[in-house]
Amino acid sequence: MDREKRRMWSETLVNIQETQGRGRGVVSYQPLRGGDVVVRDSPLLLYSAFPLSRSSITSTPTSTSVYCDNCYRKIHSAVICCPTCSHHKFCSPNCVSASSNTPWVCQALSRLHDCSSLVVHQPLERQVQARFLIAAYNLFLVSPSNFQILLSLQGQGGGGDDEDAQFLHSLISSLCPPTGGVPFSLELTSALLAKDKLNAFGLMEPFDINDGKRSVRAYGIYPKAALFNHDCLPNACRFDYVDTQDTDLIIRMIHDVPQGREICLSYFPVNYDYSTRQKRLREDYGFICDCDRCKVEANWSDQEHDDADDDENENEAMEEDSEEAMADEKDDAPSDNDSDFPHAYFFLRYMCDGTNCWGTLAPLAQSNVNITLLECNVCGKIKRDEVGHS
Known about the structure:
Blueprint: H1 3-9, E1 14-19, E2 23-28, E3 37-41, E4 45-48, E5 80-81, E6 89-90, H2 93-98, H3 103-114, H4 116-121, H5 124-142, H6 144-152, H7 163-175, H8 186-199, E7 200-204, E8 216-221, E9 229-230, E10 236-240, E11 249-253, E12 262-265, H9 274-285, H10 292-312, H11 319-332, H12 344-350, E13 361-363, E14 372-376, E15 382-385
């Protein structure tokens, strides 16, 4: 591990180590308790998740709110426009002065907005990727050291053979290629897009209890949080307090773990079923999960598949055997018994029961030893748990 990464973690409760079969991972170097905050992380860069031109795009998010392009809180008062361009919106003079945008960013976004034919015909994902590339190359201009941290994150890119990178690199080149010594190249653009795909965290809009739908207001690259591996039964989860504090991410322990245990997040809501989880991980992150939960649920999936095949090929000669097999499988189906459903306790205690929520609960750091208060990382609900620490 390089010196910069060691410095990032030297004063925390965790460290970066190579883990068997999983590459690098975040590991506890002392026993941790539920509620412990193991990481507080500030973004290297942030970029809006909304379309470049809402009026011309059909697949827009549900939100009609306007968010500040610095703090990403909803703007309730008068919108302050960027003094250099009309495309950045701010909630206060402080956010205007705190913005790290350079004149090149404003120029590139202005030209991107002006190219209406490019905006209208590109899907939202490519528009957001274009915003990311502008923010990433701008990072080199404002903080070369942070740009190197960005390059150190997971993701290699496809080089000159990456079609998305080719299109987006040509797009940025045609608009306003970055200057000031920026190492602007197709290979670097491809590598940066890979960093975005594998490491970006979404900052969500406020939770709506009526339908549970939440649009992403912005994406951010968080250098420490990006180093946590995935587990479908995580022992930590992340919180953000954009609307009340700042854009930092908080990684908090869900339950107690011993020294030397890997600390993992779930990359999506924990209520997803086995096939949905595997599809999402394969397509978005390029790996198949074989965590303890997946090993158990894979057997359930195989049984369901076998049942379907038996139904299609069923005939009178095999009817008696099929009924016997189904009876055996029923005995093996998931139940509340820990041996059949070892993660039932997790869902009972650590999944939020709020309407349309499906968030994950983690203890508040200052909870009493006998009365634990659990906070949901989606709706913010506080649950009283008198069992105490697990």
